Amino acid sequence: MKISCLRTDLVSALSNVSRAVSIKSSIPALEGVLIKAYGSSINISGYNLEIGITTDIEATVQSEGEIVLGAKLFLDIVRRLPEEIVLIETDDRLVTYITCGKADYQIVGMSSVEYPDLPSFQQTDTITMDCERLRDMIRRTVYAVSDNNAKPIYMGSLFEINEGVLTIVAIDGFRMAIRKEAVESESNTSFVVPGKTQSEVLKLLTDSESKVEILVGQRHIMFKIGSYRVVSRLIEGTFLNYRSTIPSGKKTELVINIGKMIDSVERMALLNSDRIQSPVRCKFSENQIRLSCASAVGRASDVIEAPIIGESVEIGFNNRYMLDALKNADTDEVKLILNGAVSPIVMTPVSGDEFLNLVVPVRLANEG
Q1: pLDDT in tens, 133-171
Q2: Which structural domain range is residue 184 located in?
Q3: Could you tell me how far CA 342 lies from the centroid of its own chain?
Q4: Measured between alpha carbons, how far is 112 from 43 in angstroms, rounded to an integer?
Q5: Are residues 338 and 230 both part of a single domain?
Q6: CA dihedral in degrees (317, 321, 322, 325; nearest 10)?
Q7: End-to-end CA distance of the chain
Q8: Which regions in the chain score pLDDT beneath 50?
Q9: Where among 90, 114, 138 does a domain terminate?
Q10: 313: left (phi over 0), alpha (psi -120 to 50) or beta
């Protein structure tokens, strides 16, 4: 193999692809990136048996071929090269020569035969949508994905398509996040995408008006984003019937300013730490929200004025979970719906149903 390409293109591709490379694997090749040079481009892939990222960059290919190079070392070398044109050549002994300006490296590669094939699958559904919309949907729900191995199904988000609407649902037992957007799809289907996969997809999505294509199979999914392709396993299992967990009543209802609520909860959170976790006590009555927190280090209280419809209620919540829900609402104001001290707090837009965030309350000490 003998190729030349732009250093900036190579750095960008390696930086993104390397995130799918195994840090430590029983298969040494998986700690590297697979480079294939054919025609007028090179294909670069990283794969850890769960998620794979691959992309193509333009190159001058004088001699075609394939090689696996240690991901970290190769990226570190390319990042520090002095000029823009990089020359890469491999010999029959798998020694790879990297030349740029007066800088010259020789590193030992591995045969591409040792590199496992990325999954190929027969697609059953295709979804097309704006990159920006998918980015916002994932960003504002992935925070609620569980990190508990005991229930693997909740380590991913439910993607549900029905009548041209994509709904993404994440739940970890303490909170739930739901986002809805119209998509180009005639399918009615559902599948669970791992949270780690969504985090990698999120890093590749931009705020441009370009499209992302999602190819869905029985056990795998592929996201096509520009020149990148992210392929991943789906999580198998039965996802919770999330609709049944949303309270149907409205004993107490109010509209709050998100900025004011965030500031107030953060003031209460100053008394908490990783070692000390006391709930924020929140009383809704007489058109006021009275917040307070008491921990081993002290006490704090605050008041927010807000018109309240319905019953007075006092409820406790984990400050971090509430802040996550507030910060991912993406509006200036939200509607809070409460159904007593032990029913989940429901957060929705003031009008419409494009999102719903739910926070499970913490039982307060003085409750019987």
Answers
A1: 999 999 999 999 999 999 999 999 999 999 999 999 999
A2: 125-242
A3: 30
A4: 13
A5: no
A6: -150
A7: 74
A8: 367-368
A9: 114
A10: beta
